[in-house]
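Forum > Structural Biology > Help requests

Title: Can anyone predict the 3D structure of EAL domain-containing protein?

Hi all, first post here. I have the sequence for EAL domain-containing protein but no way to get a structure on my laptop. I'd be grateful if someone could post the structure tokens.
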Amino acid sequence: MEISRRIFSGELDQTVPRTDRLLIVDDEPRIRQAFGSLLARAGREILTCSTGAEAITCLAQRNIDVLILDLNLPDMHGTEIMAWMEPNHISATVIVFSADEAIESAILALRRGACEFIRKQANPDDLIRTVDKALSRRKLEREHALMTARLEQSERLHRFLVEHSPDIIYTLDPNGHFVFINNRIETLLGYKRNELIGKHYSTIVHPADLEQAGFAFAERRVGDRATTNHEIRLRCRNLDVRNFESRTIVAILSSQGIYRDDDEESRRFIGTAGVLRDITERKRAEETISFQAFHDLLTGLPNRVLFRDRLELAINQAKRRGERVGLMYIDLDRFKLVNDTYGHLEGDELLKGFARRVRDCLRAGDTMSRQGGDEFTVLLPDIADTDAITTIAEKINAALKPPFTVGGRDFRTTASLGIAVYPDDGDTPDLLLRNADIAMYQIKARGKNGYLRYTPEMSRNHVERVDLDNELRVALEQEQFTLHYQPQVDIVEGRVTGVEALIRWEHPERGLLGPNTFIPLAEEGGLIFAISDWVLHESCRQLASWAQHGIHDIRLAINISPLEFKRADIVERILKPIQAYRLPPGNIEIEITENLLMDDAECVIAKVHELRKHGIHISIDDFGTRYSSLNYLRRFPINTVKIDQSFVRDLDSTGRSSPVISAIVGIARGFGLNVLAEGVETEYQLNALKAHGCQVMQGFYFSPPVPPAELLRYVQRRKATVPLLD
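Reply #1:
Sure, ran it for you. Structure tokens for EAL domain-containing protein below:
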């Protein structure tokens, strides 16, 4: 042994304190510097390299105890350095410390001799503990080598090596019974040595591995043809042996035949000698890395890679057997609200709880996967018909009815489920996943909290939606939009007090499109901000034009998307066209939706206050349909509430007074706010609203939304020249 030679030659001296030498190989300077400082101790020398070539040069010239190695180096892969070390007899302990996510690299590094594989995003304490452990092991090895050197060429040396070996060393007679076994059997398997002498090797072999173990334990060959590194499971003695995590360990077996020369011409087989090395920890590390490669670490569910593999297998089996396969695409409703309100840790707990409830609704052979974020998929192989899928979907919805605990409070959530079935809705994994996803978005568009099976019509709608998105971008470039205006009439004074600007899209092929057709798409695609700027400038330009025709006292109502209030520049963008056309700010009314009051209320309140400081009026559209709160009315500096047309429409159907409208009018009066009813279509509704105390209205009874010139004629007929009263 090399260390023995150095001892006897005087190169090593126990009386001289030894310095531990660490080499950090990483191409990032900050990593080398940071972990060099973390690992620095008295009695340690820290060396660093940035490339594989530098590392090989340093390893060849210096005696390195611990090599901390990144795999992805500029000039070579870290495993190439490890491959170079073995034939060059470099004995440094290798700790792989890398951001490489590839499972193959991790397993190869462990097989090339790395003692640990640590990811860079792990806790730095893990690296510190691993290095300390490695240096302690090196110290023990040096002490062991020192003792071995003094016993060299003696019977004591050989016995010491065998008895203190980290491996199980044994010999068998020709019938497979133990003749000798070292003490390592006690610490690894819990057997006393004398318990096994004379016993068959099958005593310690896992029953499932007996057949393949037979030829290795009964090995008669020697030299290169003998058994080397054969993996096998060994049984521990019993459960009362302490410090055992399981009843089996994994070992690699190397063995060869033993022969005795009876005379010069004959050799007699007298048994087999072998070595068993414990690789349980390495196998666990490989299994952990393999699990992480194919599973979601948060929920423990299969990830999209493993799910796709199982889906493809299920489709192939169903194709041969003439069966059906069900697929669900599930999205957790209102998940963003939890993340934004309580933080990502509470959001993660909600996802884990959701996954547990859904899995409890599935059959043993079904697979649930997390695709990412709050989206999940469920594979349902071998289903009789679609009723079986809807039954499971209903079970999932029912399982979500009890509240979850989020941030110490009850939180109720729902899920939107899209369903696709092989072969009716697709015959490939990609097609099934796409169609289930389309069905899921359809149910979300219909109000969430439910399930829907895919139909071909959905794809047509989806394609049309994609086409419409592309055409919408062209419409912005070519200015295909126009504004129509609907008058707001004071029925007591008989005059127009304001107009609401309503955008229309003059599509070259589809004709005139209303906002419900394209505004949600614009919000989703981020085009809403450019559209809002156009609406603000065009409506202000039109108001200035009317002023030139003697119409000065009409208030212009402009709808603003809730997404606008997430931008810091919303106030400046609203003021810019008002100032450009020199309009009185009091003639501009910005309409906000009621659900905006619930979304980051403090930020919204501040921006609304800023608008009011400049004299701009604020109204709440569709009041009473969402999250009405008197507290929000008290805190928001608004001027007007608009009664939603759904309440106005009910006036015809009920034939009696509306308590909702009475309540809204009463609330508005209590807060000193104006009231405007929209969607008035009949004289009956007009009179009923008047009886409830509502004075200002808009709707088709007076006029539909019309182009600017027609609106001007309407106003002039009404002679809207009386000044507005605030």
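Residues 438 and 462 are 7 Å apart (CA to CA). The first strand starts at residue 20 and ends at 25.
Shout if anything looks off.
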